[in-house]
């Protein structure tokens, strides 16, 4: 008898922090993981014929491609943030539409930043309010491109991810700040708006401002990103936008205190808006990343029965900083990789 072929997972954006972990997890389960990226190895962006060949017959398509938003929102970076999301999603859409055997499930990255600054109530898929500004425009344009038209053989899920915690990415600079005694809350306040920032939609102004470092902090552990994708494979009732966030969001002040405990820092000085504005200009990032109140909960995942591996931020931080990920043999319980 001929042995059955391994499941084929097409992964776009595998060079990033999240994509690399997804590729590792599926390979550990015996799947054939093929990659699309700027440098290959299996298909390059711009080579539509090669992309189409990988997608046709695939069991799962996951797209995590896109320039990091941890940068200054100047004109060049804003254009690249848009282009890197829309062009790659458009290329995959074309490949899926033309496939004789399209993937049953396409999971595309999105962001929980699509919701408004919220410190009054949590944002869910059913009752969440879409925000305003550059970052929100990126998110809504990305999802519009993803969901356009009909793809009758493929279920589509936009994974609205909160800040992903793992050994790297967003947590790395926060850990460094805490170790150097700057791990206190980030405090909003007055800051003058320039005409250019207002026109570009990148001025971070929230009315009323969240005081005292109490802006909400929604997050998700990297292991749960993988677990959710597996769970989606086994739950065909889930399609459309899905919030990928812990069911227990915290706030900036509490989160930073937990980071200090995890790294063994005895104190953490607070940073005010004027300090953040000057500092973000030096390290080439934006204050929105720490001042926007993101209060997002996973209504649809919880209703479907997903069990989070890391539901609480203090435990998640201890696991990451202590070097302990979720045991690999717990992953199949979240949803089989095989049919």
From TrEMBL:
InterPro entries: DUF1731, Epimerase_deHydtase, NAD(P)-bd_dom_sf. It comes from the Bacteria. Keywords: Oxidoreductase. One of its GO terms (molecular function) is oxidoreductase activity. The keyword rRNA-binding does not apply. Its EC number is 1.1.1.-. Residues 274-320 form the DUF1731 domain. Residues 9-127 form the NAD-dependent epimerase/dehydratase domain. The keyword Oxidoreductase applies. Pfam families: DUF1731, Epimerase. This is Epimerase. The lineage of its organism: Bacteria, Bacillati, Actinomycetota, Actinomycetes, Micrococcales.
């Amino acid at each position: 008898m001929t042995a059955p072929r391994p499941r084929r997972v097409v992964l776009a954006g595998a060079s990033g922090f999240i994509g690399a972990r997804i590729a590792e997890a599926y390979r550990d389960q015996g799947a054939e993981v093929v990659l699309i990226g700027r440098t290959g190895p299996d298909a390059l962006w711009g080579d539509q014929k090669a992309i189409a060949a990988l997608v046709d017959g695939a069991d799962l398509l996951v797209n995590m491609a896109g320039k990091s938003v941890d940068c200054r929102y100047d004109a060049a970076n804003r254009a690249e943030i848009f282009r890197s999301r829309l062009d790659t999603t458009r290329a995959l859409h074309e490949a899926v539409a033309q496939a004789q055997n399209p993937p049953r499930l396409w999971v595309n990255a999105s962001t929980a930043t699509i919701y408004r600054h919220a410190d009054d109530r949590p944002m869910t898929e059913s009752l969440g309010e879409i925000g305003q500004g550059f970052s929100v425009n990126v998110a809504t344009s990305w999802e519009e491109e993803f969901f356009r038209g009909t793809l009758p053989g493929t279920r589509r899920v936009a994974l609205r991810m909160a800040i992903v915690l793992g050994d790297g990415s967003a947590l790395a600079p926060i850990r460094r700040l805490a170790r150097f005694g700057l791990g206190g809350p980030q405090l909003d306040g007055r800051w003058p708006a320039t005409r250019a920032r207002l026109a570009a939609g990148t001025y971070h102004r929230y009315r009323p401002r969240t005081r005292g470092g109490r802006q909400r902090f929604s997050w998700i552990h990297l292991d749960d990103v993988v677990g959710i994708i597996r769970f989606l494979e086994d739950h065909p009732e889930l399609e459309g936008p899905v919030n990928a966030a812990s069911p227990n969001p915290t706030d900036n002040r509490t989160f930073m205190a937990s980071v200090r405990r995890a790294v063994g820092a005895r104190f953490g000085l607070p940073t005010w808006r004027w300090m953040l504005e000057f500092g973000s200009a030096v390290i080439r990032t934006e204050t929105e990343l720490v001042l926007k109140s993101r209060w997002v909960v996973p209504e649809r995942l919880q209703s479907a029965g997903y069990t989070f591996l890391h539901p609480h931020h203090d435990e998640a931080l201890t696991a990451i900083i202590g070097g302990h990920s979720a045991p690999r043999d717990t992953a199949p319980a979240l949803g089989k990789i095989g049919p």
